[in-house]
Design goal:
Layout lengths: L7 H25 L13 H4 L5 E3 L6 E7 L4 H19 L4 E7 L8 H12 L4 H10 L1 H4 L6 H10 L4 H9 L4 H13 L7 E4 L2 E4 L4 H11 L9
Parallel strand pairs: 2-3
Antiparallel strand pairs: 1-3, 2-4, 4-5
Helix pairs in contact: 4-5, 4-7, 4-8
Length: about 230
């Protein structure tokens, strides 16, 4: 004999009970999940910097090296990456004239910047730094106002195919906090006070540098080869 169907009131309380169980389970999961916190002002060790000068694009034989000091939470840095950098990459870096060196310079007023830089560093472990770099900048408006954007960065990592177990271990261990601090310290030594800033042939230039201005500087240091005569 089948059990009688529960009344409307009983059904309502049954649904509430199920929701409560699911909700408590979700809270337990979130409570158990390790948090991500990338410390600032850490002691930099030799292991943090040995063999690492920054994230490099371009030929080792390029006649001009450009160092960019930038902050992932900086709107001007995001604008440079979206508007100017694709042309720089296509015409100057791929063309063999410029070697690009990206250095993290997380500003104190941007609380998510170190976490973003660390997410990119963990992606670099898996050979996907520049993909993560681009995605972080492209999604800046989505994560920059969050109290903690670690989950958003993890989602970006998933979208580019990262091994999330390895990524999580890297993030939760703050593996590259010293590297990020060393990069910031380097920027301070050369006089960086805002982002983005660029060092080209020993000259420090602050602000969102347009492609044409950058090309003019590169041309003044290493003139382009003349076009072949038809």
């Amino acid at each position: 004999m089948a059990a009688p169907a529960p009344s409307g009131l009983k059904r309502f309380y049954l649904v509430l009970a199920v929701v409560a169980v699911i909700g408590s389970g979700a809270l337990v999961f979130l409570a158990r999940r390790p948090t991500v916190s990338i410390p600032a002002n850490v002691v930099v060790t030799t292991a943090d910097t040995v063999g690492f000068r920054g994230y490099i694009l371009g030929s080792a034989d390029a006649p001009v090296e450009v160092t960019e000091y930038a902050d992932y939470q900086c709107p001007a840095c995001s604008s440079f990456d979206a508007v100017q950098f694709p042309t720089v990459r296509e015409r100057l870096i791929a063309g063999g004239r410029v070697r690009w060196r990206y250095r993290d310079f997380p500003l104190n007023q941007h609380p998510q910047s170190r976490t973003a830089a660390h997410a990119a560093a963990c992606a670099d472990d898996q050979g996907k730094y520049w993909e993560m770099h681009r995605f972080i900048y492209e999604a800046q408006n989505d994560w920059s106002m969050q109290a903690n954007a670690a989950d958003q960065f993890r989602s970006l990592g998933k979208s580019i195919g990262l091994d999330l177990s390895a990524y999580d271990a890297c993030m939760q261990g703050a593996k590259y906090a010293g590297r990020i601090q060393a990069s910031y310290d380097e920027g301070m030594k050369v006089g960086v006070g805002s982002t983005p800033s660029f060092v080209i042939a020993g000259r420090l230039m602050a602000g969102n540098l347009p492609y044409d201005a950058l090309k003019q500087i590169v041309d003044s240091i290493a003139p382009a080869a003349p076009a072949p005569t038809p």
